[in-house]
Amino acid sequence: MKFNMKSLFVLAISSMATIVSAAPTENVVARFSAVILSPNSASVWPANTVQTVTWDPAGEPDTDSLLLLVKGGTLFGNHRLAANFSITAGSVDVTVPDVVAGDDYQLAFFGTGQGVVSQEFTVTV
After folding, report:
1. pLDDT for residue 77
2. Quick one: which of 51, 96, 100, 118 could link to 107 by a disulfide (CB 3.0–4.6 Å)?
3. pLDDT digit string (tens) for 14-28?
4. 62-81 per-position pLDDT tens digit
5. Where's the Yeast cell wall synthesis Kre9/Knh1-like N-terminal domain (predicted)?
């Protein structure tokens, strides 16, 4: 199954809709704008290894979370690396799946129904 970034965001947001609709109604709207620190453009991740994703959690609400692996701006298959982890922790360990080598991988990181994308990084086999 192949998705472009726009359909990936729509899919992730719609999959979180059930969770969000069960949340209490408040007048405060939380904006998700975490900055992914690692991986970055200098990162090289070997497939089938455990790596740590880090981000700046300053000001981020601890809401539902989702982390996906993207290649060339497109999600192929099910490459969900992590879900339902603490955003305020600032890091989560993930296992790099067995994928083809490339220097055009990114992470799509979602929280509060919004997402951010990491810099491109390299995955080796």
Report:
1. 65
2. 118
3. 444 333 333 444 444
4. 878 999 999 999 886 678 99
5. 38-122
Element (H, E) at 37: strand 35-38
**Residue numbers of the domain that contains 96:** 2-23+32-124
Q: Give the SS3 label for residue 13.
A: helix
Q: How far apart are CA 51 and CA 39, in angstroms?
A: 9
SS3 83: strand
pTM of the model: 0.75
DSSP state, residue 84: S
pLDDT for 30 equals 52
Contacts of 95 (CB under 8 A, 6+ apart): 48, 49, 50, 51, 81
Distance CA 94, CA 55 (A): 14
Q: Which tokens is 80 given?
A: 């969900």
If one counts the domains in the chain, the total is: 1
Angstrom distance (rounded) from CA 30 to CA 11:
20
Domain of residue 103, CATH code: 2.60.40.1930
Helices vs. strands in the chain: H and E counts, helices first = 2, 11
